[in-house]
Amino acid sequence: MDDWVSGFYVKAAAAGGIRGGGNGGGGTKCGEVEPDRGTSEVLTDLFRSGLRTPSTDQIQRISTQLSLYGKIESKNVFYWFQNHKARERQKRRKVSADGGDRRGKIIRPDEDKIVLANSIIDFGGVIDKADYHNQEEG
Amino acid sequence: MDDWVSGFYVKAAAAGGIRGGGNGGGGTKCGEVEPDRGTSEVLTDLFRSGLRTPSTDQIQRISTQLSLYGKIESKNVFYWFQNHKARERQKRRKVSADGGDRRGKIIRPDEDKIVLANSIIDFGGVIDKADYHNQEEG
DNA sequence: ATGATATGAATGAAGG
DNA sequence: CCTTCATTCATATCAT
After folding, report:
1. Which of residues 83-102 of B touch A (CB under 8 A)?
2. Which branch of life, at top level (chains A, B) (predicted)?
């Protein structure tokens, strides 16, 4: 490898097709139904609720629920959280270094409100446990 | 993404020259005095110099230099290098058709088990010691 | 206008 | 957790 070490920056916006298998970013094919919407919705909702590193049990439950929308594996859920958290953090960390003009930079204020209402995931009230070390960028 | 975000894409992506301007393909119309000229030149030069994965510091510096030609962000530089390297590899992959045998085919072992850090997460059944080591990211 | 090509952008998956 | 690779989408320009 090159190993020039480091160099990273990614933006994490709307979720992609987590169950897309090889589908990286772009999106789903026009023929796909709309399970992604439910999937992304659930995951995003969970994330916003403060869940950052789901435990084994959580992942299992989530994947089980998501499987109803389509093919989904535990690892997909695991990866999703890992990536989402990482990208959000990286985005906040590096931002940009444009020393000329910074017009209309899209800054997304983190809404870390513990609001989990539409989530179909029926936990036994556990989401908080796995995220006790949650911290914000401030 | 799904189509439900197509509108969002137009604004967020606005694909084009590296600086999110307008020119997208065609390899930067040769013969027109655009800032891209310098931009592409610098990036290509750096790439040819051996720089494939610039570190954060490098990206910062490069973007700063390039900002003189026009609006550009670290994100753009990062993407440029990522894409350039990926494309080079991708093209090289196709060219490997000489001989009628092309190895390096994308192998995707459907293993329900992945190794993460020091823990082995078994997605096939139950995760073994998922994130027992909750380390602060701050 | 349509097709092909090129490039930026985004994310899933995997390695370390 | 951090870094990198691979794949795909969306769009712009060029070629027909």
Report:
1. none
2. Eukaryota
